[in-house]
Amino acid sequence: MLIHNRFTFLIFTIFFFIGCKHKQDTPKEFIIPPSVKKRDISSTRSLFYNSVYVGPTNLRSGDFVSDDNGKSWVQKPMRPDFLSGLPFGYRRGVVTSVFDNKTDKLIAIVNAMDVPDLDPNIFEPPIAQETYYLRYRVSEGGKDKWLFDEPIIHEGDFTPKNPLPDVFIGSNSIYVGDVGSIPIVTKEGKILVPVQTTPLGPDGKLWNPAGGHTYTDVVVLIGRWINDSKIRWEMSERIKGDPSKSTRGMIEPTLLEMENGKLLMVMRGSNDKDHHLPSYKWSSVSTNGGKTWSDPEPFTFEDDTPFFSPSSMSTLFKHSSGRCYWIGNMTDENCQGNLPRWPLVMAEVNTESFKLIKESLLTVDSYQEEDKSRGRLDISHFSLIEDRATNEIILSYPRSYHAYQSKEFITTRIAVE
Length: 417
Known about the structure:
By secondary structure, the chain is mostly beta strands. It is built from two helices and 27 strands. The longest helix has 23 residues, at 2-24. The radius of gyration is 22 Å and the shape is globular.
């Protein structure tokens, strides 16, 4: 009987370690790519776009809320709006938000400009590169009430005019680049906000060493809860691009926290002033909670093969299964600046190497024959959220034509096995 028990234990031990190795080094034939389950086209944008869960089945999307997991929506604007009474031309735009499940609080990040008489119809005015700054808002318990709206200011000897290290509003700026720069709440409870900032040169003016459309560094704002639902902020070191490799520096960062606490960042670059440069996405890693980062390197597949991607936003996303994904534009040939912004793809991230698993690649949307009569196609500015009832990823985006002169809106449900 003792011999039998020892034999059984030996067999169990062997299979246990085989199982652990199988889980860690899954053979390529067992990798199941995500798959498109449903695709809806509409003339109006889905309310799932840029939405966030603020409860078990409660969603908020701008001024609209749903208490039944997105089946129905009602209009309930957040109050106060913090714009009424401001001088004409001032701007307050909520770009992104995150819900902290541990504290039951919603944090919204606001791109702000205090430029009197600035025409509100001007999209991305050049003066924004010198005047954009960041504010944040907090709401508790899924309520429709903001507790406050305050500028993000680094702890210590900083002011609204000099809110963060080497940021002097009026000379240079700091802002959220796109909806893909989603804040995350770490396992330690810190709030990480990936943003971009315009650097200053030796003359105290905006530095643009490669002459691109704009030039930015990337930073991460690290927040910790203090009293009265306020957040104490500090800024990471700057993640700087090489202007000889990316003519616009680093742009529109997106973040992912791994199980071991390491952080992956993926950033947009550009070759807008030198189309001979390879059009890459760039990655950086932090091992200390986002305070410092590795030098940016091309974001690649597991075999270190880089891929081409236009100067466009992308997003890192963690699914409830534990699988992690990157969503963005990927092309067969080298891009020219921002173009072409198709196909839109999705691929799984290897959480140990921080690289893409080629066998998992899914083309979500791309140029079609019928697009020829619609002018230039752009597939970008997307948002995504996981449906808590089905665990499907809901990917929403405008499909734009004639250089953004017209558009239709797509809502795609993607299943993850």
